[in-house]
Amino acid sequence: MSLRICILETDVLRPELIDQYQGYGRMFERLFAQQPIAAHFEVFNVVKGEYPSDEERYDAYLVTGSKADSFGTDAWIQTLKTYLLKRYENGDKLLGICFGHQLLALLLGGRAERAAQGWGVGVHRYEMAEKAHWMSPAVEELALLISHQDQVTALPDNATLLASSPFCPIAAYCIGDQVLCFQGHPEFVHDYSRALLDIRQQCIGEPAYRNAVASLAEQHQGATVAEWMMRFVAHGKAEDASPV
């Protein structure tokens, strides 16, 4: 059997990007298809009010990135927070990326806010602070494509810091074997990152834009993070996570 993953899509792509990239849910499906643990995905766009039925059960729930602020007051964000808290209290596994990373930190007792450092864009490198059993393949340093102007500034009390950099001190964390979150975007590809940079050039600022474009010459380890995430979900369910 393969893992069943519910992707809670928290954005709608810009019109000029939809034809090529469809949405963050589809980008995650393409990413996870490249790693060795079999999984089946269902995508629900929560901005549009889409959620799985109460009868559906999943091995994990993944919250994607978004142009919205995790600390925003939009009705759909409040609905999502209520839903995720229910899932957390039910013991379900939760995965968060960028907006999801920040929202889950907020929801579970941490803090997220606009970063004084400004926009984080391009390929960014993080030092690993922990080595968990599911972090296979192991790395000392992690490179990911990023696009964010908010950051987690305080972790929930029961969280463990996993990755850090001077620019982004809380870049990844876990809470036991139930919650795993990353500020970076494992699902991004370089062309999509460049398209976002071009769209946001003015608000990012010219120096940061130029540095970010130059950084795109580097590779990133989104596939590694994808494998970690599926190993994290599969832990304790090994019989249902046969390699493909």
TrEMBL record:
SUPFAM superfamilies the UniProt entry points to: Class I glutamine amidotransferase-like
Pfam families assigned to the protein according to its UniProt record, in alphabetical order: GATase
Top-level taxon: Bacteria
Domain Glutamine amidotransferase: 77-191
Database matches in PANTHER family: GLUTAMINE AMIDOTRANSFERASE YLR126C-RELATED (PTHR42695)
Protein name: Amidotransferase
Organism whose genome encodes this protein: Aquipseudomonas alcaligenes (Pseudomonas alcaligenes)
